[in-house]
Write a structure and sequence with these properties.
Shape: globular
Bound molecules: flavin-adenine dinucleotide
CATH superfamily of the largest domain: FAD/NAD(P)-binding domain
Distance between the termini: 14 Å
Number of domains: 3
Strand content: 15-25%
CATH topology of the largest domain: FAD/NAD(P)-binding domain
Length: 449
């Protein structure tokens, strides 16, 4: 049937990371005309993957927990099901400079962990029971959000050996925070996710999630455009001051019915500077960085779907904190040789010199696997520096994060920066932004068409 109405201007989502795609997916599902504008050549943002030696590899070690609620909903709704997700072995393997220990997550597994006393095993059991019984929000927003993780672990009675041998190496890489300064509410939430489900990676790497999400959005009638950064937001000159469109780097403009700003904290802050100064100020977040070295190996360095953590005390030098032979998980059995990620968490001095990090990896390889011909078998294929891998969440920071609404009626925010610095923080924030933006659309746009 012909109607007199032209289609409404789209609701534009700026940024095709997990937050923007999550928002766009939910909006498209509810019938909103959605257009995602992504600056990069592909979607995915910080959770993109790359290709090394013809095979997929993540741009830094990254895993998601099957217990992440919003992420699980998104994976299900884009069709990424359990058999597309490969689980890491439970727990982790830690080397403390003198020897190995494997930390399992069962009671027996924790007992066998050499840096845990019997008291630590009991304390971990008590903590696990407490976390299992508490709703996620109560964990994130309980009194513990006011203290840091290091202080919290001491207060719970964990021994220095348990903290140095397990919590610091593991949570130091999960949160890019070897000082364990993140608030303990966030630690308790992550610990529950770790205990309740499995840590997994999509079989084609994390980039698979955003590629499939973009395909689903397009199937639902939305559009995803890559390769063009939004350079500014155009506001109506009238006293309602609503957003009417965006400017692109090439000077062109696109009219919109509303906007979801999902460009990551730094870019979103710049875009909001002339739109909502208060929201922009709230995005002035301290960033934590990691550098990842990607190697192609002629032979396998380690077996299993294992995280190998460096639990040796810091000596002030450049160090590799985590090693993962990701080809044991991604497309297992495919291709020749192996692909390995070595990751160093940045200290206060910023990113390490990649050559020094490469030398630190060669030295670790000699200590961890003396028979392995690292110099001959390993080729450094890529160096990926993430200055803004995650924002820092010392106590108090999360309480001041902006929510989805801004001071402009039709501009909304999505990004891990509205919640916590994780895949779940990003995907959950997209759901919340879609809920408020969808209500705006229903009231102000659909009603007129
Ligand atoms: C190396 C690494 C490891 C990590 N490990 C984990 C992990 O194990 N578990 C976990 O839960 N989380 C992990 N994280 C965190 C997680 O990846 C992020 O929290 C999440 O991906 C953030 O998604 P986002 O959409 O909020 O932001 P981003 O991914 O930053 O997306 C923002 C997007 O906006 C685009 N953009 C920016 N400016 C513009 C503009 N002007 N116009 C158009 N587009 C623009 C960017 O190109 C980008 O694609 C890790 C992050 C990194 C970097």
């Amino acid at each position: 049937m012909m109607t007199d109405h032209a289609p409404p201007a789209p609701l534009i989502v700026i940024g095709g990371g997990l937050a923007g795609l999550s928002a766009a997916l939910r909006l498209a599902e509810s019938g909103v005309r959605v257009l995602v504008l992504e600056a990069g050549d592909e979607v995915g943002g910080r959770a993109r993957s790359m290709t090394v030696d013809g095979e997929p590899l993540d741009r830094g070690f990254q895993s998601l927990f099957t217990a992440y609620p919003a992420t699980s909903r998104m994976l299900r709704d884009i069709g990424l099901v359990r058999h597309d997700l490969v689980a890491f072995d439970r727990g982790a393997v830690v080397h403390d400079g003198s020897g190995w220990s494997r930390m399992g997550m069962s009671a027996g597994g924790t007992l066998g962990f050499r840096w845990f006393t019997r008291g630590d095993v009991l304390r971990l059991g008590r903590l696990a029971a407490e976390l299992a019984a508490a709703p996620d929000d109560a964990l994130l927003w309980g009194d513990e959000a006011a203290e840091d993780t290091a202080g919290y672990l001491v207060r719970r009675g964990f021994s220095a050996r348990a903290i140095e041998g397990f919590f610091r190496p593991l949570f130091g890489v999960i949160t890019a925070d070897r000082g364990l300064q993140s608030d303990a509410g966030y630690f308790r939430f992550l610990m529950k996710m770790l205990l309740r489900g499995r840590a997994v990676v999509p079989v084609e790497g994390h980039g698979m999630i955003s590629r499939w999400a973009a395909a689903r959005i397009e199937q639902l009638g939305g559009e995803v455009r890559t390769g063009g950064a939004v350079s500014g937001i155009r506001l109506a000159p009238d006293d309602r001051g609503l957003a009417t469109g965006v400017r692109l780097g090439d000077g062109s403009e696109i009219t919109c019915a509303g906007l979801v700003v999902a460009g990551g904290a730094r870019a979103s802050r710049a875009l909001l500077a002339d739109v909502d100064r208060q929201a922009a100020r709230a995005l002035d977040l301290e960033a934590r960085g990691v550098t990842a070295l990607a190697y192609a190996l002629d032979a396998s360095f380690h077996s299993g779907r294992t995280l190998v953590l460096n639990g040796a005390p810091a000596d002030g030098g450049v160090r590799v904190d985590l090693v993962c032979q990701e080809s044991n998980l991604l497309r297992p059995g495919m291709g020749e040789g192996a692909r390995l990620l070595a990751v160093g968490v940045h200290g206060d001095d910023g990113p390490p010199d990649p050559e020094q990090l490469d030398r630190a990896m060669a030295k670790l390889a000699g200590e961890w696997n003396p028979g392995f011909p690292w110099q001959r078998a390993a080729r450094l294929e890529a160096v990926v520096v993430h200055d803004d891998a995650q924002f820092a969440v010392p106590p108090g920071v999360r309480a001041d994060l902006p929510d989805a609404a801004t001071g402009v009626g039709n501009v909304f925010l999505a990004g891990d920066f509205t919640a916590h610095p994780s895949v779940e923080g990003a995907v959950g924030s997209g759901e919340r932004a879609a809920a408020v933006a969808g209500r705006w659309w229903d009231t102000h746009v659909s009603a007129g068409h």
